[in-house]
Amino acid sequence: MDTAARGPALGRFWAGAVGGELRTTADDPVGDVVVPGVEHGGIALCPVPEARTVKHRVHLDVYTASLASLEALGATVLLPAEQSGLPWTVMADPEGGELCAFLRAPAELPAYLLHGVVVDCADPERVATWWAERFGCAVDDNDGRGYFTVHDVPGMPIATFDFVPVPEPKTVKNRIHWDVFGAAADFEAAGATRLRRRDDEISWDVLADPEGNEFCVFTPRG
């Protein structure tokens, strides 16, 4: 997750929002969100020079017992569920990035509150199918409601990847991206574009899927 800040504010918010903790160092005051006990869970905060200028094309969905708890962390309500008629409330994090909050009874909350990743698409079926093939999973068409879901991905700590239609094209780098294990060449052969090869500064490859959504590929552990 990109951040224009040079301090821990965004990380503190997301640590509280997903049920994790923010770990910083003297050399890294921005820090990273880790979730003890959840393999591959957490959020890496990436300092960037540019501030947010457009709606997040990739956003996160979280579970919460109350909107007030997220507001206390620094979130702002943009569109209440009561107004939209949808089962979630659209909020903004301390840097203005959109997120969706799903209310659950305290007893129903999982330890890891990050429910899923949502990706705006020009062709959601195409992008969802591409990612489902990479993960070896099926695509759920949600009974023809126009958006597509990839879920039950082995080893993935979140429940769902949703791909939803929007009219506007992607114009800037996404401020939220995801990391995967694998071989960059395999993703390229399937239609991804390599944006940056691993080098002396980074130990991963940066690629983009067929609609330009950035992701990072790491060598599998072990």
Structure notes:
The protein is 18% helix and 32% strand. It folds into two domains: 2-176, 2,3-Dihydroxybiphenyl 1,2-Dioxygenase, domain 1; 177-222, 2,3-Dihydroxybiphenyl 1,2-Dioxygenase, domain 1, CATH 3.10.180.10. Strands 7-8-9-6-10-13-12-11 form an eight-stranded mixed sheet. A four-stranded mixed sheet has the order 14-17-16-15. A three-stranded antiparallel sheet has the order 2-3-4, with helices on one face. With 222 residues, it is of the alpha+beta class. It has helices at 9-18, 67-73, 81-84, 124-135, 184-189, and strands spanning 2-3, 21-23, 32-34, 42-44, 46-47, 58-64, 76-79, 89-92, 98-103, 114-121, 139-140, 148-151, 160-165, 178-181, 193-196, 205-208, 214-218.
CATH superfamily of the largest domain: 2,3-Dihydroxybiphenyl 1,2-Dioxygenase, domain 1
CATH architecture of the largest domain: Roll
Arithmetic mean of pLDDT: 97
Q: Number of helical segments? A: 5
What is the name of the CATH class of the largest domain? Alpha Beta
Secondary-structure element order, N to C: EHEEEEEHEHEEEHEEEEHEEE
Q: What's the number of structural domains? A: 2
Sheet/helix structural class: alpha+beta
CATH fold-level name of the largest domain: 2,3-Dihydroxybiphenyl 1,2-Dioxygenase, domain 1
- Globular, elongated, flat, extended or rod-shaped: what is the shape? globular
For the secondary structure, the number of strands is 17
Strand order of the largest sheet: 7-8-9-6-10-13-12-11
Distance between the termini: 26 Å
Radius of gyration: 17 Å
Largest sheet geometry? 8 strands, mixed
Give the % helix: 10-25%
Report strand %: 25-35%
InterPro entries: Glyas_Bleomycin-R_OHBP_Dase (IPR029068), Glyoxalase_6 (IPR041581)
Domain Glyoxalase-like: 4-101, 117-218
Protein name: VOC family protein
Organism: Nocardioides mesophilus
